Amino acid sequence: MEVKNICCIGAGYVGGPTMAVIAQKCPHINVTVVDINEKRIAAWNDKDLSKLPVYEPGLDKVVEEARGRNLFFSTAVDEAIDKADMIFISVNTPTKTYGKGKGMAADLKYIELCARQIARVSKSDKIVVEKSTLPVRTASAIKSILDNTGNGSDVKFQILSNPEFLAEGTAVEDLLAPDRVLVGGDTSTEEGKEAMEALVSVYANWVSRDHILTTNVWSSELSKLTANAFLAQRVSSINALSELCEKTGADVNEVARAIGMDSRIGPKFLKSSVGFGGSCFQKDILNLVYIAKTYGLNEVADYWEQVITMNDHQKRRFAHNIISTLFNTVSGKKIAFLGWAFKKDTNDTRESAAIYVADELLSEQSNVAVYDPKVSEEQIYADVDYLNTRSSEENREGITVYEDAYEACKDAHAIAILTEWDEFKTYDWKKLYDQMQKPAFLFDGRGLLNIEELEEIGFVCYKIGSGKE
Ligand code: NAD
Ligand code: UDX
Questions:
Q1: Were both Cys, which of 45, 131, 344, 361 would link to 88 (CB 3.0–4.6 Å)?
Q2: How far is residue 392's CA from residue 371's CA, in Å, rounded to a whole number?
Q3: Active-site annotation, residues
Q4: Does the pTM of the predicted model rise above 0.90?
Q5: What are the residue boundaries of the UDP-glucose/GDP-mannose dehydrogenase C-terminal domain, all occurrences included (predicted)?
């Protein structure tokens, strides 16, 4: 079967870039991305490409090439479902904030709504693709909804799992040259195999077939949670060692380099930091822990939960170190944050370490001054408000957002690097130093800057994982 019309439900950080690349690479396929969020769809359709709702290097060019040709963004969900022969579900699957599994399980209400809508609207056979990250065995729930809540017409559904491995900040690069594409499906039937081949053929337009893996649907679903758990576990492992380095005079970057040259360990994902953020790692590990617990696998659950415990500790430790270094009081002191996004080259702030560090400092009555090149003031306030630690008014009193980094740092007692934006390396650090209160403290939560040079200027520096000899 040849796919001619694709619909993707969910125009977020995954749905938007993924479909843009599919459309760019498959001009013979019509791709419609739909969302219930009208503002988001309007932003995807904005003539001014700097207003796209997702900032990713290179994405504007891809959208410019395909939009209006075979890539469309719309709020007409039913219409797009009806027309499509393949439907990607790429809606959010956040951690549940209520009821059974609160704080751990994935909230599948948006997924279920999509499945019900597809069942209600479909008049012809469809291949339904799970693009969202889902608990293992969700495909059977989706299948049951699709097969039992339809509109009476004799429609056949095939469910595939096709998790997305892109990382934000490098989404376009990752989509154009993925390490692998994973397609899970019903390998026991001819129809299942045909559906898998239909999806494989879409990717084969630009990904070589030896990079496209096909597995049974449960392996595919579980591989996504596992991949994120392994990646996050590396960050927590190196962060755990960063604290020991600080006590012993070792340097975590040197340790990371030394172990990373062992080809069995490898050099990537060993950068010690203020703690990992992003919408995926914490959510997916909590989900994995929850699934393990529901099967009674308590040791398995406890093992993975430590990755989160360590990450929470790392964020808190960074904030407490600022407080204790500033003579145990930051009350009334301006602390400048360079960076708010959870990593560079994205405007996404979900679970960013900066939010938690700011929250600790605000509780100590500090004045937090934030500069981030891509994150809006509105988003920064929304992020701290979401924690519910204090009132929205108090958060606005405690945090000031600047459009200029030099203004943010002026008269500050300390600068903290929370995101590794390249532009921070190019700043005139002598000028920043001259405008600060003295002693001028600098806390590099990303191992971004040349500490020796900054110390020569006069800064008192703290670098994660760097011990005093
Ligand atoms: P997102 O919140 O940016 O986007 C999800 C979109 O779905 C939102 O715009 C929302 O309005 C829309 N939506 C929700 N319910 C809908 C419905 N019933 N009909 C139409 N639209 C609806 O989320 P995201 O970051 O793109 O993540 C989507 C999924 O992909 C999640 O399961 C996530 O775990 C997974 N994932 C994310 C990343 C990442 O880097 N962000 C990477 C890999 C996988
Ligand atoms: C992650 C996975 O990498 C990706 O495959 C999956 O599809 C979605 O989740 P993402 O969260 O976008 O991607 O970014 P990633 O590069 O993995 O970084 C996650 C967090 O870990 C960031 O806060 C980053 O700064 C931090 N990190 C990463 C470190 O602190 N040290 C590292 O060595 C690597």
A1: 131
A2: 19
A3: 280
A4: yes
A5: 336-451
